[in-house]
């Protein structure tokens, strides 16, 4: 059974350690949000997490008109193991990238690895923005472990250093003959990564390189070409349903 989440109480990420009665000062933006947007009062309940100490129920203590702190009362959920699923993606332009990062985290990616491919149009990445989007998705969805975000790496370098025990599920829009569910079912049990290409797809050389690796398993996402952000969600759903954590 999945643990029960509380979805009605505001959940906040904080950097500080969480211990009973060890007050956590909120920053200006968080204080403003609770006091002036949500209009919360003294004693109002919020949930806190920091990626290390699980989820805590806390009570609001205003310390000024625009500042407040939270008193952790008790732990509601212990810190879980981080998700092991690696999400490999060619960066997209800003709005779609924001969306894709949020959705990948909601769907259970534990590590986000941007990959530079030949047809990638976006080569300068705002890492802070990726991390902020990942954190926001975690905050909203009650995911207590913060997904790791890695710096951009070239596809060739990624493959050269790849730990071959981790299977890369390569979403390949060209391979129409693949029976997706059976292919996933036959992947050897073990750690996984999902790879989604850029809007322009993979180059023929990149495809050849990918398909030559024993740890790469190509799958199809059906007879239509999906945009990369749609492909991300479709692939994560498929993998989670057939060989991932939707089965438990
Ligand atoms: N090469 C295409 C579009 C690429 S779509 C073109 O320019 O026409 C972007 C990425 O989404 C692809 O690289 C692939 O990883 C994934 N994708 C999209 N549709 C897919 C499908 N039907 N099957 C598998 N992967 C798909």
Described by the principal axes of the CA atoms, the overall outline is elongated
The end-to-end span amounts to: 8 Å
- Helix fraction, binned, reads 25-40%
Instruction: Enumerate the spans where pLDDT stays under 50 for 5 or more consecutive residues.
Output: none
Give a count of the beta strands, DSSP E runs of length 2 or more: 12
Largest sheet: 7 strands, parallel
CATH architecture descriptor text of the largest domain: 3-Layer(aba) Sandwich
Element-level helix/strand string = EEHEEEEHEHEEHEHEHEH
CATH superfamily of the largest domain: SPOUT methyltransferase, trefoil knot domain
Radius of gyration: 20 Å
Mean pLDDT, nearest integer? 94
CATH topology of the largest domain: Alpha/beta knot
The secondary structure category is alpha/beta
Strand content: 15-25%
CATH class division of the largest domain: Alpha Beta
| Count of folded domains | 2
Task: Tell me which ligands are bound.
Answer: S-adenosyl-L-homocysteine
Can you give a write-up of this model?
There is one protein chain. The chain is α/β, with parallel strands linked by helices. The chain has 7 helices and 12 strands. α2 runs parallel beside α3. The radius of gyration is 20 Å and the shape is elongated. The protein starts with 10 loop residues before the first strand and ends in a 5-residue tail after the last helix. The model has no long low-confidence stretch (mean pLDDT 94).
């Amino acid at each position: 059974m999945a643990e029960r989440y509380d979805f009605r109480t505001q959940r906040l990420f904080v950097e500080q350690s969480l211990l009973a009665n060890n007050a956590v000062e909120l920053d200006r933006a968080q204080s403003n949000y609770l006091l002036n947007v949500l209009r919360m009062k003294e004693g109002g309940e919020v949930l806190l997490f920091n990626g290390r100490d699980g989820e805590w129920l806390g009570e609001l203590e205003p310390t000024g008109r625009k500042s407040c702190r939270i008193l952790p009362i008790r732990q509601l959920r212990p810190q879980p193991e981080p998700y092991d699923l690696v999400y490999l993606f060619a960066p997209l332009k800003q709005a779609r990238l924001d969306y894709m990062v949020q959705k990948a985290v909601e769907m259970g990616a534990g590590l986000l690895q941007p990959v530079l491919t030949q047809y990638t149009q976006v080569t300068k990445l705002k890492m802070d923005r990726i991390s902020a989007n990942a954190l926001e998705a975690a905050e909203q969805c009650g995911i207590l472990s913060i997904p790791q975000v890695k710096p951009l790496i070239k596809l060739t370098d990624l493959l050269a250093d790849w730990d071959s025990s981790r299977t890369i599920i390569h979403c390949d829009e060209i391979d129409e003959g693949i029976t997706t569910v059976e292919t996933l079912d036959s992947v050897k049990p073990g750690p996984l990564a999902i790879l989604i290409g850029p809007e322009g797809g993979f180059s023929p050389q990149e495809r050849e390189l990918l398909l030559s690796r024993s740890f790469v398993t190509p799958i199809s996402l059906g007879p239509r070409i999906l945009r990369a952000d749609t492909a991300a969600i479709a692939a994560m759903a498929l993998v989670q349903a057939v060989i991932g954590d939707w089965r438990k």
